[in-house]
Amino acid sequence: MDIEQNNHWSYCSFFDQKKMKNHGFKIHISGSINNAHILLNISLPYLVKSKLNFKVVSSLNKLELQNSGIYGQSQIGKLITIYPEDNKILNKTLFDLHLITKGYNSPLIPSDFQYRNSGVVYYRYGLFISNESNTIQLSNGKLFKDTRERIVPPDFQSLIFDYQVPRYSILPKHLIILEVLSVRGKGSTYKVFDLKDKKIKIMKEGKPLGEIEDSGIDGTDRVIWEAFILSKLNCLTHVPSLHDYFYIGNHFYIIEDFIEGSTLENYCLQSDFNRLEILSIMIQITEKVNSIHKMGFIINDLSMGNIIIDLSQNIHIIDLEFSFSQDIECPPFMNVGTPGFFNENRKSTYIKDDIYSLVCIYYYLLLPSEYSKLTESIEDLQKNQIYSNKNLGLLKNDDKEIINKGLNGEIQDINSLLLYFKELYAI
Q1: pTM score, two decimals?
Q2: Within 13 Å and on the Cβ side, how many CA atoms surround 281?
Q3: CB–CB of 63/36 below 8 Å?
Q4: Cβ of 373: how many Cβ atoms within 10 Å?
Q5: Which overall architecture, per CATH, does domain 2-137 show?
Q6: Most buried residue, 161, 162, 328, 334, by CB count within 10 Å?
Q7: Pairing of strands 135-137, 53-57
Q8: Are 218 and 208 in contact (CB under 8 A)?
Q9: What is the pLDDT of residues 329-347, one digit of tens each?
């Protein structure tokens, strides 16, 4: 690590700056004389551990002058400037800094784009190394002049998802709220009417700092992640289609399909299924889950409350904000789920966790009276009681075996579970 200093900046380099690309997205951490020491204590260990090239304002006096605008409007707020080597590092660094600095606020950086709803993390496209003309030659041969303004060349606009998200001050006029379906700390869910296509849809809200997790993930981050998941699963007809996403202020919203029907929870409590009907439902659900697994995602929070049976008796899976993938960068793991449907002892997410949830669903469909007991005592449940609440002695031996294997992690893949259900159905 090399450190250099001039009268305004201190530079930290992990590779020769002469070998650094001369343009791209730069990341800025905004600071003031009141919070600079806190933000430096938070950010610098991460930047050094990640071996990122960066520079820091050399003194609080310089930062105070900078924030007064004496060096130009484009310099206001800039406490740290970071130079990511490639697009993967760019997006990871933006997201990580967004999490570790959550809750702090600093002066707006006039030349930059705010990252998500962060109060301190910003980014801008421009020169890494200045030249006399302040121009960048793009891959198409055209010249782009770096004027330190919020301008991104077209070829680079897709590199940061957040750049593409519209930002509004009020709800778009074509959306009319019909009903508030739920209100939680992390955000509310609404039924809305879309004047553009004359259809009823669902609008989900993510609130900044709402139900914030240990990692810094909050309601906004979860809904942003769900938007990404739905965009990746758009070829599947049994998950809601994503129609739109946008910010209103610092709150993030997605617009998705409204699926008319009833949750499996309501079916369980109101209907009288026979065993063959239950096995038919479980085969359908397991096939739907399997198709999501084939797309590279584990649902991670599967229960009867997020499975809908529509008016044509088709199965749909909703609420995918806790889904996980081992192939792409995901929000940090958090062991959450609906009480009675997840293994509270797990340390990370695997396919067998969805299998665990599926056999729990099977158990409660077979014994709806047990599900009634669970829902009635949900507030009193202790974590170590969730497993013991499943009274396997009430079941037939075949059902007891498959549920017990699923709960103990002995069914390793979803196809094996599907085969079990199909064999039971055929008996």
Answers
A1: 0.89
A2: 27
A3: yes
A4: 14
A5: 2-Layer Sandwich (3.30)
A6: 162
A7: unpaired
A8: yes
A9: 788 777 777 778 888 777 6
